[in-house]
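Moderator note: this is an archived Q&A kept for reference. The question asked for a predicted structure of one protein chain; the sequence and the answer are reproduced below.
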Amino acid sequence: DLGTGANPYLGLIYTSFQERATFVSHGNTARLVKKHGDIKLAQICGTIAADEKRHESAYTKIVEKLFELDPNETIMAFADVMRRKISMPGHLMYDGYDQNLFVNVSTVSSRIGAYSALDYIDVMEHFVDKWKVEKLTGLTSDGKKAQDFVCGLSQRMRKVEGRNEKKVREMQTIPFS
């Protein structure tokens, strides 16, 4: 359960974010494997990244229209999604052995530069800019609070991430299936 329920605003914002994140992850992976000489895998990852980018574009345009037609509800939904934090569908992966498979894969992904917390923050900032969140006007007091939360979140997250990045690098190698 992604926590979006039957709320289309939450679902569309979540999906915009998820599609952008997978575009970034697959694009980064394509560059990494190409650098290490696996051209075929780089092409496959690049194709997947391009597909994710097309999905992102569609969902992003829908959310842009929501911001145009209903900025107050849309910004409150955006804040709600960001408070919950985006969990990628991969968090459900299980190989029958490793209860922490997603956490372990995520740790490796972060260490090698395929996708990290900094990418997550960059994705969030992308949407704040793309949807012109800072420029929204005519919001209710709750909408304004949501706007302030969303617009200030990346700065707060960057401070925390600066401390966490060192911890991730210092973690021991993780054996997993």
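Archived answer notes: Residues 39-69 form the longest helix (31 residues).
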